[in-house]
Amino acid sequence: MRLVVCDDHRLLLEALGLALGERGHDVVALVSCPDDAVDAAAEHRPDVVLLDVNFPDGSSLMAIRRIRDASPESKVVMLSAESDHAVVGRAIAEGASGYVGKEKPIAEIVDMLSQAANGHVAVDPMLLQQALRPQKPSDDPLWALQFLTDREWEVMRCIMEGQTTEQMADSLGVQRSTARTHVQNLLTKLGVHSRLQAAALMAAHASEETWPVHLR
Fold first, then answer.
1. CB 191 within 8 Å of CB 158
2. What phi and psi values does residue 45 have, to the nearest 5 degrees?
3. What is the average pLDDT value for the chain, to the nearest integer?
4. Computed over its alpha carbons, how large is the radius of gyration of the chain?
5. Concatenated DSSP letters of 14-58
6. How many C-beta neighbours within 10 Å does residue 62 have?
7. Cβ–Cβ contacts within 10 Å for residue 34, how many?
8. What is the pLDDT of residues 38-48, one digit of tens each?
9. Which residues, in sequence order, are bridge partners of residue 79?
10. Which helix or strand (DSSP H or E) is residue 195 part of?
11. Angle at the Cα of 72 (from 69 to 74), degrees rounded to 5?
12. What angle is formed at CA 113 by the lines to CA 117 and CA 5, rounded to 5 degrees?
């Protein structure tokens, strides 16, 4: 990935740049304020801008749309020491594609950047649920479906067919532990506690048109 990293703590900024570079990614710019992140995005057209949330003169949330306007193909992933679901919701509403904590290991940060670059919402599923559920009308039981990845839609199909974890792993071509992880992420995003509840939700409220066109 081609990356721009923005943080006002110089030591952390340089450490992130070094760690990302050592993992084979092209860090095209290290900048220390949101305005410079906008300029760097316009100049370099990176795959992802990793943007700190808090700066001495305020939040960087207002820079998200400016970055996307300057480089529409670039994704923005927010970096923060806090997991405030209200801030997460605001960041997603402004156009961010992800949100990751500074306490996470570099491998997890890289994974989040990769998810965002590939078009996914790179936010911990539980945090995403907390952030966005209050903003949706209670009469839309399927609002969370918009945040499912293609893989999670495939998992949903397996659940609707009544497949066991082993059958699901075979269908998806993954390990059983990976299939279980996909199921748990799906259930968390939907706000349900079991496969049966997920299937019941879809049976009660979904139609063929609910599914992504390429997965119908």
1. no
2. 50, 60
3. 88
4. 19
5. HHHHHHHHHTT-EEEEEESSHHHHHHHHHHH--SEEEEESEETTE
6. 11
7. 24
8. 999 999 999 99
9. 52, 100
10. helix 195-205
11. 115
12. 110
